[in-house]
Design brief:
about 325 residues; disordered N terminus; mainly alpha; about 75% helix
């Protein structure tokens, strides 16, 4: 019966399970390219809020165009703007800290650190949403934190990055994790497109206000291309992610997230000629294992759990 329903869905939409996994992989790869572009833009004197405002413009334009082209503009409208504003401000703080973190950390180490988000989200969900924290989740949380400690290797003199980057990453993880717990409440009435668009608009408004009131750095043509690429990659990633979620299990989509460690490490080597240390590789392996255990645990408890629980802030 399930196989027949799946075959009918493939015929009606033209996207198979394998195609959905391919879209998920493409989405996460686009997001790595967006983060790489953000890191390149961060090497300039451009303020973090100006970079985030540019990201918001690209997201808003792309999602609005997609909504009207698909004939579903109503999915872009918020049901509860006040509650969405809280989520969007958390998203804004997260993105500002992402810019700061990428200025102070290698891309690979950044991904290792932000993969703490699923573990922190599980802890917050157990406290605020009263979700059960079984032994698998506890083991995953402990393993994830141990993996980060191993990857950072705080007692080594050859440690990559600095404490500003580490602190910014921890704020990212905290904001993102609170955001995800709050999003799980909002997703009962709001669509993913609405949440993403509202967040993009808030980033535009706040970024523009700060540029007018404080300081705006002139954008050179080369920097403009980098910012445009960042926004487009992020928008393409979001679109692939949404389509993938419509055609396969959220857990299957979320597990593709860990490919960002590979693509992030590859781009780091190609652009900055930085290679991950043995400690980073060992820590990332432990974090991936912890994340997969967390995904398996949540699948056993709730097969249709919110996919965003697994997705880090990068």
């Amino acid at each position: 019966m399930a196989r027949a329903e799946r075959s009918a869905e493939v015929k009606s939409t033209g996207v198979s399970h394998a195609g959905a996994i391919g879209l998920a992989l493409a989405g996460f790869t686009f997001w790595v390219l967006a983060d790489t572009s953000m890191k390149l833009a961060g090497n300039s004197r451009l303020p973090a809020y100006e970079i985030v405002a540019c990201l918001g413009v690209a997201l808003a334009v792309a999602l609005t165009a997609r909504g009207f082209l698909q004939g579903t503009p109503r999915r872009l409208l918020p049901k509860n703007p006040a509650k969405q504003l809280v989520r969007s401000l958390l998203d804004l703080a997260n993105n500002l800290c992402v810019v700061v973190a990428l200025r102070h950390l290698p891309l690979t180490l950044f991904y290792i650190l932000v993969f703490l988000a699923p573990m922190v989200t599980a802890l917050l969900a157990s406290v605020f949403l009263r979700e059960r924290l079984g032994w698998r989740k506890v083991l995953a949380v402990v393993g994830g934190f141990a993996g980060v400690v191993i990857a950072v290797n705080p007692f080594s003199a050859a440690r990559q990055g600095d404490w500003i980057g580490y602190a910014a990453c921890m704020v990212c993880v905290l904001c993102f994790s609170v955001n995800m717990v709050w999003s799980r409440v909002l997703m009962r009435t709001e669509t993913p497109e609405s949440l993403t668009l509202f967040s993009g608009v808030v980033q535009i408004v706040v970024g523009a206000a700060l540029m007018l009131a404080w300081h705006a750095e002139p954008v050179t043509p080369r920097l403009g291309v980098t910012l445009a690429a960042m926004g487009l990659f992020c928008a393409f990633g979001s679109m692939c992610f949404f389509v993938a979620l419509q055609h396969t299990s959220p857990v299957h989509v979320s597990q593709c997230h860990y490919t960002q460690l590979v693509t992030g490490a590859l781009l780091t080597w190609l652009i900055w000629r930085e290679t991950p240390t043995v400690w980073m590789l060992a820590g990332s392996a432990l974090i991936v294992a912890a994340g997969l255990l967390m995904a398996m645990s949540m699948t056993r408890e709730d097969p249709v759990s919110n996919p965003e629980i697994f997705v880090g802030p990068g």
